[in-house]
Amino acid sequence: LFFAYQVTEKRDFLDAGLKTVAYMRKDLWSPKDKLFFFGRGGATESASRQGASGPGGTLLRAFVTGSNLRVARVLLYAHLFEPDAGHLRLADDLIHRLAAAAWTPGQGISREIRRGKGAGIRYLEDQVEWMGSLLDLYQLTADTRHLRSAEEFVRHDLKLFAEDALSADTYHLLGPGAK
């Protein structure tokens, strides 16, 4: 929606994007975990919000790294078009919290956050979202620590994912354990 607004300059797109951000901040934010969650296993929105259990007692909340990074980027775009320091602070905090919990040098960003730590396989798309979020944050703030973080990722992880891409069984499951 923010890209549509950028191209067309039609206020309806911006308003719809801002309403979406307000919905995400109200209904998908977990104050306890300080992450956005997304229902899993066919959970209804209200059941997910309450952390209800599904079949077999499995928790229906999923703290997916890539999805949280996409939300951070949406917050940054919202701030770009309608400056709101709250959006910028939340995006910055979210990006760095995810990096602290889910990034392992030489292995990349984990797909999910479980019990406050990265878990599961690493997806190339999540690595791209993280790089993009760091670069977007750098462009909006001119704070060089975001650029340095992106450069550090490239030094530690990009080579690993490029090498695995040549031998991975699928195009999007890259990194340790993907073969």
Strand and helix layout:
Blueprint: H1 2-8, H2 11-27, E1 29-30, E2 35-36, E3 38-39, H3 45-49, E4 61-62, H4 65-81, H5 85-102, E5 103-104, E6 108-109, E7 112-114, E8 117-119, H6 124-141, H7 144-165
Antiparallel strand pairs: 1-2, 3-4, 5-6, 7-8
Helix pairs in contact: 2-4, 4-5, 4-6, 5-6, 6-7
List keywords for this structure.
179 residues, two-stranded antiparallel ribbon, 7 helices, 58% helix, globular, disordered C terminus
Overview of this structure, please?
- The chain is globular, with a radius of gyration of 17 Å.
- Helix 5 runs antiparallel to helix 6.
- By secondary structure, the protein is mainly alpha-helical.
- The model is unreliable at 41-59 and 168-179 (pLDDT under 50).
- It has helices at residues 2-8, 11-27, 45-49, 65-81, 85-102, 124-141, 144-165; strands spanning 29-30, 35-36, 38-39, 61-62, 103-104, 108-109, 112-114, 117-119.
- 32% of the residues are buried.
- Strand 1 and strand 2 form a beta hairpin.
Runs with pLDDT <50, length 5+?
41-59, 168-179
DSSP helix fraction:
55-70%
In DSSP terms (H or I, runs of 4 or more residues), the helix count works out at: 7
The gross shape turns out to be globular
Provide a compact summary of the structure:
This protein is mainly alpha-helical and 179 residues long.
